[in-house]
Amino acid sequence: MDMAEAEFTQEEVMVVYPTVAEAMAEALGCDVGQVTLNASLIEDLDGESIDFLDMLFRLERAFKVKIPRGKIIEEARGELAESDFEQNGKVTEAGMQQLRAYLSEVPAERFPSPMKVADIPRLYTTETFCRLVLRAKRSDLTAHAHR
Amino acid sequence: MSAAADTGLSGSSIIVTGGSRGIGRAIVELLAAEGADVTFFYRDAEAAAAVTASGQAAGHNITAEQVNIRDAQSCNTAVERIAERRGHIDVLVNNAGVTRDNLLAMLDDADIATVLDTNIGGVFNVTRAVVPYMISQRSGKIINMSSVSGEKGGRGQTNYAASKGAINAFTRALAVELAPRKITVNAVAPGMIETEMSRELRDRAVDEVLSRILLRRIGRPQEVARAVWFLASSYADYITGHVLCVDGGFKME
Predict the structure, then answer these.
(1) Does B177 sit within 8 Å of A54, measured CB to CB?
(2) Which of B42, B133, B160, B238 is catalytic?
(3) What is the ipTM of this complex?
């Protein structure tokens, strides 16, 4: 948990938050006032998987970054090999530990047990999307630096 | 048309792939004549220039973009540019397609790869580039050019038929995915149409071909374009996942 908390400061998160919240409201067709930092797109705000995708598209356009769809889960599993992270579509014990650290902004009680890999996006909150943007911006900077 | 409802096409932003010749050209010209802002993708620069020149002379809004639809990145870049220019993308017509007819045993690897990569791979590439915009808009119409070959067997067309059958399946599956955002996905399946693509077959076996068409004549590109026009218009708002045959009643043995 400490690792992820050290990743970005709350100040950094709050810099991108207004734009992310606005994207969230537009993706869901709801009032931006309903969007809070720790609201889950799917669980709290009744979003569907297509709203999740819309959210990624909107963030890509708003921040001019690339968030490869296939990388969402890959990023969440970090250093763990796929076979250590999941088995038969369920997240392993080691995988859960990694996931809790990666999604440190998500309250512990929201993680179901057992957890299906396909259900990971259900955990995503507005803050998770903020962090996703910050990571994408950072890897973009790294890519430019290596050119 | 005065008593009819607005088609919704005037001022709309439309992408047509393979728009410089044949059926694609007829689609570009018909939709542009309806007042749509049409961007078409092409490979053949000379043919494309002719389409834009005659369109501009008629006061139509037609733009040509040279795009290799087999290359996903090239599709993304072109679509991004169009979306930035127009602010929205209302209709996508996946029309581009090629044939490399031969008996299966005679086909070489390139004949198979070219047809599948262009006809179905291209549909994936362009559609994947466009769909994010349509999802965010909560509207859009996607029309894929299939063929009678996608449903009925034809000698020397395993590669082409496989690509068109794939388009029909793609159309139905994508219609399910995009319905929550009110995006419709349909296909048009032409039979024998008077284009360069079918010229060789028509020259070789016109009587045999005609004997299989109930209406006993070859179709015109404009007749296919009319079906696309319909599916692109607001008249077809309640139609999705459909494959519309424009084939004069084609039957195969």
Answers:
(1) no
(2) B160
(3) 0.84
